[in-house]
Amino acid sequence: HRRAWHRGDPTPVPLTLCTAFPTGRLGYSEANADRNEWGCLVVTVSRRVEVTPEQVFAVIEDGWYFASWVVGAAHIRMVDSNWPAVGSRIHHSVGPWPVSINDTTVVQAVERDSMIELAERAWPIGGAIVRINLEPAGPTGPQITTSEEVSSGPAKVLPHIAQTALLKPRNDESLRRLADIAVGRAARVQR
């Protein structure tokens, strides 16, 4: 995981939006914005599911399902044999044919059945760091939470409110699809 240092702060942070534009420097109110553990602005969505975190992770770890649940991802060209190990990649297209762009998504960190962090690219728009957390059952069932931080390209200079307007609906739909696939697979196994 590449890291940089804030001036005067020994805490390592990812080389992302928060290092390029430190907190409070974008000229709009960030008081109610979601932040990751380094204080970087992120777009976060959550969804309760009717299956276990293990069943959700089983969908994530089958890279060939990636385009079925990630909004914007299209044709899967190749999945590294060690997916979802750190450094492994999914080679896919982004966008509709015939204007799709060949791209890759790389695993930055993973904790089986509980978390995966992906570096996604969508050039020429930019890249993002996406973290998916799978939390055990609570009073209303297990929860999936996705946090996305724009990390490179022209999209990183958009105000957080604009990033939220663009990314939140996409990520809500991606979580809905991921949950639906996990529930459908679990129902097939129970038959």
Task: Please tag this protein with its features.
191 residues, alpha+beta, eight-stranded antiparallel beta sheet, two-stranded antiparallel ribbon, 10 strands, 38% strand, globular, disordered N terminus
Distance between the termini: 42 Å
Number of helices: 4
Strand content: 35-45%
Q: Please identify the structural class as seen in this structure.
A: alpha+beta
Number of strands: 10
Could you give the topology of this structure?
Blueprint: E1 3-5, E2 12-14, H1 17-20, E3 34-35, E4 41-48, H2 53-60, H3 66-69, E5 73-79, E6 89-94, E7 101-111, E8 115-122, E9 126-138, E10 141-152, H4 160-190
Antiparallel strand pairs: 1-2, 3-4, 4-10, 5-6, 6-7, 7-8, 8-9, 9-10
Helix pairs in contact: 2-4
Description:
With 191 residues, this protein is of the alpha+beta class. Helices cover 25% and strands 38% of the residues. It has four helices and ten strands; from the N terminus they run ββαββααββββββα. An eight-stranded antiparallel β-sheet has the order 3-4-10-9-8-7-6-5. Helix 2 packs across helix 4. The longest helix has 31 residues. It starts with a strand and ends with a helix. The N terminus is likely disordered.
Compact overview of the structure:
The chain has about 190 residues and is α+β, with helices and mostly antiparallel strands.
